[in-house]
Amino acid sequence: MKKRFCLISAVMVLILTFTMTSSVYAFKWPWERDEKVGNVREMVEGPIKIGFMGNLSSPFSLSSRGAAQMAVDEMNAAGGIMGKQVELIIEDTKGEIPKCVEIYKKLVMVDKVLAVIIAEKVEMSAAGMEIGAELFPEFPHLFFSTIGSGDVIWHRVRDNYDKYKFGFQTYYAISTHYLEKFSGMFTDIYKNTMGVKKVALIYEDMEWTQPLRKGIPGVSPRLAEVYEKAGLEVVYETTLSLDQKMFNSVFEEVAASGADVIDCVIGYIDQASFIKQWEQSSARDTQWIIWGGLAGMPPIWKMTGGKVLGGMVGSSMVAVNITPKTIPFMVNLYTKYKVGPIFGSHTTYDTLFGFKKALETGKTLVDVDTIIKSLETIEEVAVLGTIGWNAEKHYNLPSPKYVTPIVQWKKDGKMYVIYPEQYQQKPYESPVNIRK
Amino acid sequence: MLLVKLQSVLAYTFIWGSIYLLISLGFSLICGVLRIFHLGYGVIFVLAAYGTWAFLDAGLGLIPSILAMFLLQVLVALLVFYKGIFQRYLDREEILLTLTMLVFMAVTHMANYFYPITAGVNLPTTIIDGTFKLGAVRISYQMLLAALMGVAVTVSLILFFLKTRLGLIIRAMSQSTQASLLLGADINKMYYLAMILSIIPPIICTLMIAPFWSIDPHMGASLLMTAMLIAILGGLGNLKGSIIASYLIGFIHAAVSFLYVSRFMGFAALIITLIVMIFKRGGLFAGETIW
User: Fold this and answer.
1) Are A272 and B266 in contact (CB < 8 Å)?
2) Which residues of chain B fall below pLDDT 70?
3) Which fold has domain A177-315+405-435?
4) Peptide bond preceding A431: is omega within 30 degrees of 0, i.e. cis?
5) Which value does ipTM take for this structure?
């Protein structure tokens, strides 16, 4: 018994000694050793790995996946990046945050990707960015959020650059730019393209419209105030609930207000019902402009049985030569990858080419800090203008660098760009004239 | 101005109320006859829209597509829901609720797989396009027709229950299945009939509202919620209650949206339902009978 007790004590002492010395000398198990060196070796030896994550049941992520695959295929066909082939690892988050976090870890720690793309709603990107920040010191990598305008991504970079510097955001505009950029664009359309003055404002009850509806005290005014200051007259304002299906009262009130145009700061409400009911209301002769969403996608024509005729919307799903890349992107995505360009596909594609340019400019495939600095300075020709990122906040350079065309639905069931003028395909017509 | 608004409230109480009635009648019927909470009810709307579309897509005309869809709905109602779930698990409510919900989700996912939102699904079921003015209120012809159809279907169902022998048996069953059995009622046949009757209002509803309502794979969920809200407010399984509740919800929606702001119409209806439930447990017409 005494002998056994002594043996156990000796083992305990050994364990204790081992534990203490290992903490002093930073002991690591063989599989924990030289993780960074291992990462670097793999990055130098194997292909350049990029992880793609999205909810592969949603049209947005599916379209983005097609665009990402197309970008990688094009890069590889042209010799890869700095002579190395690119490998895209595609993962399905199923729209679930825990799964997103788990996959992010797997991509970075097991697959050892150089960059992770999350092409899904911005909440998912925020979750990915958090786990990315924890992994970054051990596993340096880059992160790109390519769907969603929420400010949560770039706010992190602004507020804690050292922790989140690996994260970049690409979208048509971030929420903050909506007031700054879109209000000017729409004022120009109302005053100069349409020649009207009275505006009815319809918002949807979502986080992204709040600064526009209410303004941010001491930071930015309300959208209505910006319009009034620019010489427009806001005659009606209302907010719609996201689950609303009946809009009759809204359109009757708009018609009674005498508005010339309905400015719809919406993107997520049931736009098919909204448009169908507009066409069967007293406001059917009043022009509407929807900021984005389903109304800017080709299926809406069929979904509304053509009732969308005359409507205007911010859309990138129209074949207009903004850059030499625009038309080939659209055609190839349709024909070779069997998906339509939807929100997020352009931004994912452009992000990858921006990433390529950053590697080539920085002349490194492994030094992530250099690549980050490079991403902060480069500019590259993109499908929708120019891709590049703000050096301090890491959102992509907004309009006029990155263009969102305003289109109008015409009688042939297609969208045509009416604004900006340099890309105009057909002139603006009022709903009354267009129906004639 | 106020007069115009009041006219609007009146007109849309009738229109929306009648449409809500079409949405909820089938749900109430199943609640009343089979005494179950049919969480798979949303399937009927999805199948009505996507079934018709699939047959149209296959090259059938509109009427043959609607007929084929109706047959499909009958098969799903009888074989999947009644024979497959209700008959087996009538006394195991937790399994019954789970299974009906699962079928609903599976059908929704299937619709989304074959016809995602990008497929641009739309039913060409407009009977009369355009609008007209009733006093100072502008109304869409299609909405009015949907409302009138709601009234017609309801009246037909009431007449069926009150004036026919089959209706009498179903009413008796809704009071006591055991007593009806003792009196020689063929319960199984009556259940079949009730299942078929219950799919008619939501099918008509889907076809009538399609010209002013969006068709998407997830449309069943919001329509199921509306049906449930009305059935609960009216008193589960009571058709009189459903009629009153439909028009009450229609009135709340119309009053809030025309006199205040449309954004709160859904919220207001929920609050009123909650208040009613606090003071009148079991809903407006809480009872054990269908009529």
Assistant:
1) no
2) 287-288
3) Rossmann fold (3.40.50)
4) no
5) 0.94
